[in-house]
Amino acid sequence: MPQPYALEHLHLAPASEVVRLLAQFPDIVPESFGDGEYLVREAEPEGAVFLIVQGGLVVEQASPTPGTAPVQLALITAEPEACALIGEMAYLGSQARTASVRSCGRTHALRLEPRHIDGILEGYPGLTRLICRQFSQRLKATDQTLRTLQDRFALSPGQRLAQAGEILFTRGEPATRLYQLAAGSVRLEGPEGARELTAEDLPQGLLEPEAFLAGHPQRVTATVTGMAFLAVIDLAHRNALVRCFPDLVLGLLARGGPPCDV
Question: What is the pTM of this model?
Answer without folding.
Answer: 0.52
